[in-house]
Amino acid sequence: MAGGAREELAGVVDRLDVLLSDLAEAEPMAVLRAIGRLEALIGRQAPPAGVAARGQGATWEEIGAAVNATRQAAHQRWARHLPRGAGADPGDVVG
Question: pTM of this prediction?
Answer without folding.
Answer: 0.75
